[in-house]
Amino acid sequence: MVIGSKVNKEYKGYIASMGAGIIQSGLLPAVAFTRARLLRVQKTKKSS
Q1: Residue 29 contacts residue 21 (beta carbons within 8 Å)
Q2: What is the value of pTM for the model shown?
Q3: Residues 11, 1: contact at Cβ < 8 Å?
Q4: CA dist., res. 8 & res. 25, Å (int)
Q5: Ordered mean pLDDT values, 10 residues apiece, the chain (48 residues)
Q6: In this structure, which of 12, 16, 30, 32 has its CB flanked by the most CB atoms within 10 Å?
Q7: Do 37 and 14 contact (CB within 8 A), yes or no?
């Protein structure tokens, strides 16, 4: 996720979309959605 003081590109996208998600649906649903998406991506990477 973070290497030194730099954030990986894929996580920058998650961070950027959090603001819009919070505004549209609230904090808890936005965090839950982002976490589910992150877990899906990690699972896909492990199976590859």
Answers
A1: yes
A2: 0.62
A3: yes
A4: 26
A5: 73 85 94 90 82
A6: 30
A7: yes
